[in-house]
Amino acid sequence: MNSLNDFGFGTQIRKSPFFDATVRWGARDFSVYNHMYIPRDFGDPERNFWNLVNKAILCDVAVERQVEITGPDAAAFVQLLTPRNLSTLEVGQCKYVLITNADGGILNDPVLLKLAEKHFWLSLADSDVLFWAQGVAVNSGLDVKITEPDASPLQLQGPVSGMIMEALFGKEILDLRYYWLKDFVLDDIPLVISRTGWSSELGYEIFLRDHTRGNELWEKIMNIGAPFGLQPGHTSSIRRIEGGLLSYHADMDIFTNPYELGLDRLVDLSMEADFIGKTALKKIWTDGIRRKQVGLCIECDPFPGPNTRFWPVNRNGQVIGKVTSAVYSPRLKKNIALAMVSLNDSKIGTKVGVLTSSGEVPASVIEKPFFDPKKKIVVSA
Questions:
Q1: Are 98 and 86 within 8 A, CB to CB?
Q2: CA-closest candidate to residue 54, choices 219, 195, 201
């Protein structure tokens, strides 16, 4: 078993409230996300995948730091940050949003949580939106306060997660709808719980609001979940790629715009409210895009793990794009990938070559998401 001293990037890398618990429960390796440790290895990643899709896993995702926006103009300020129309967002509701810069590039793709009329959280992917938001606020003319709250999420994901949550919180939790949130207390531990997650499976995010109770909360959930087959785990690259979920810095970045990702639904150019990047996105919409994200089936031996480099995608001797995320799916029994390619080469059925670390192999453009495209699993009761 690893000891707590086996991991170390230095004191500048923050530990989550669940760090010690994850090490006790078998975390073997960590990486850094939002300047924090995140568990990346509890053993065989394929076993982690099957644990997720057959039963449930508990993941430390405290790295999804929250940007808290409060004050009289909080709603107007949040709308300024994102091109998604928030005019119908209700208290207790969550929405997947994009944060864009003046050029229409994506700075982050957080989940927005509305805790009260003038109280919002942005649950972040891996980039420093706290600093961005504080900088935007300085000259916005809006009366807002922007801080990082004491809030650290766990993800309980998988088909039996609802049964575990019922055992923890009673039948009331089953009324929580997909992409909605509610305050709960578990043995005096203050929590916010949302029906969200980064797994493409039925699941919940449990936001701990007192960092001193991290070990206690982890142990309570694992103990209650044991009869249901709950296992400690980490976010599954296999399942998230199967589901077409995007990873910031991999599948998108500051040089990617929403239209290239097919996320037109997250941009409302016709709304009266202004937002950062509106002028640029109007021009991109008018001029059209030159590249597009596609799904690929890569025809070679199973990849031993996710790609760690952007593999070039070739056609007719020319580089037409790059693979951004790739993995072998043991369920689909094929290598699947997300790639950004030239618009002219994005048609379903197009044959391309992918220059992997082992050499060039054939691939075909296919539909994505690769599994459960209608998201029936994740929205199921």
A1: no
A2: 201
- Give bridge partners of residue 335 from the DSSP assignment: 298, 328
Rounded CA gap, 103 and 83, in Å?
Answer: 12
Per-residue pLDDT of the chain (381 residues; tens, 9 = 90+): 455 556 667 788 999 999 999 999 999 999 999 999 999 999 999 999 999 999 999 999 999 999 999 999 999 999 999 999 999 999 999 999 999 999 999 999 999 999 999 999 999 999 999 999 999 999 999 999 999 999 999 999 999 999 999 999 999 999 999 999 999 999 999 999 999 999 999 999 999 999 999 999 999 999 999 999 999 999 999 999 999 999 999 999 999 999 999 999 999 999 999 999 999 999 999 999 999 999 999 999 999 999 999 999 999 999 999 999 999 999 999 999 999 999 999 999 999 999 998 899 999 999 999 999 999 999 875
Distance CA 196, CA 165 (A): 13
Which domains are delineated in the chain? 19-64+150-241 (3.30.1360.120), 66-147 (3.30.70.1400), 290-381 (2.40.30.110)
Supply the pTM of this predicted model: 0.96
